[in-house]
Every structure is written in C-alpha cells, then in structure tokens.
Amino acid sequence: xxxxxxxxxxxxARDIVLMGRSxxxxxxxxxxxxxxxxxxxxxxxxxxxxLAGARMTRLSGGQQQMVLIARALAQNAPLVVMDEPTAxxxxxxRKRIEDLVLGLARDGIGIILSTHDxxxxxxxxxxxxLLHRGRVLAAGPMRETLTPATLxxxxxxxxxxxxxxxxxxxxxx
Length: 173
Description:
This protein is of the alpha+beta class. Helices cover 40% and strands 18% of the residues. The chain is built from seven helices and six strands. The protein has helices at 13-19, 33-45, 61-74, 91-106, 118-124, 142-145, 148-155, and strands spanning 79-83, 110-114, 127-132, 135-141, 160-163, 169-172. It has a two-stranded parallel ribbon with strand order 1-2. This is ABC transporter ATP-binding protein. Belongs to the ABC transporter superfamily.
C-alpha cells in the first residue's frame, strides 16, 4: 500500500479497491461477483462504503488514503505492506487505521509498516527495524529498540521516553 497515489483518471473509489483484486484474476478476466464482494467488504471494514461511488480526484487526501488501504485489504493477502498508513488522516481515521492494523495482526495477517512516529510504532509494533541514512541503526523487540539513545541518533535531537500509567510509551523531543 503506497503512502499516496497520483491517479491520472477519475476512477471511483470502488474501482480503485476492485483493482486490488487484479492479482487474483487471470489474463483478460473480468472481476467476478466474489471480487466485487471482496471490494465492498473492504470498503465497509474501513467505514467508507459511502465513498464507493465517489471519484478519487474529488476525495480529500485522507479519504484517498483510506481507499488505498481498502484496496490492500481487498487483496486478502497473508501479508500487508503499508507505507505510512495514517499519513493525511485526521485523529479519528488514524485511530481507525491503527485499530485495523492491530486487528489484522490478531487475525494472523502479517503487517509491515513504515512510520516516522515512534509513539505509533510503540502502539502497533512488537518488533522493528530503525533505519538511519540507509543503514540499520537498531533492530529487535520494540522496548529494546525504541530507546532514547537510538531515537536521539535517528532524529538528531534529544529524545525522552516516558512510560504512561497504562504501560504505553510516549516520546518527546
């Protein structure tokens, strides 16, 4: 799932999600009822079924991001790769996507995602790889990897790690 996509044609959101099913189609095949059902289910799972007929060129950046996530879900793949899945999303949709990612992981779907937000990484990831200038800076379990030292090196500024009363981590510059 890309971070963003620039579409030269005014496809509907439904068409974009249905394109996620193309890997399951043979050469010259058209989407079946099962493919359409998978696309509709993905739109519904994200709570954006009402956008199905809307043209992508008319949607906000956040709405487009939600449609791209629905396209990835429609593939029914055992592994989903997401590049900054919450970019351009408001707080409510960001929470919806984070909950979706956690739910997919609980359902046995592998998730690989990139994020620049250490708080989000702490909420969503059990293990991680931190990349700095094209090299691995740290890799391993979340609590061992997201340290003030590694994050200070990564972001080039002093980072503090706070553990909240619920056990979650929060990072501050």
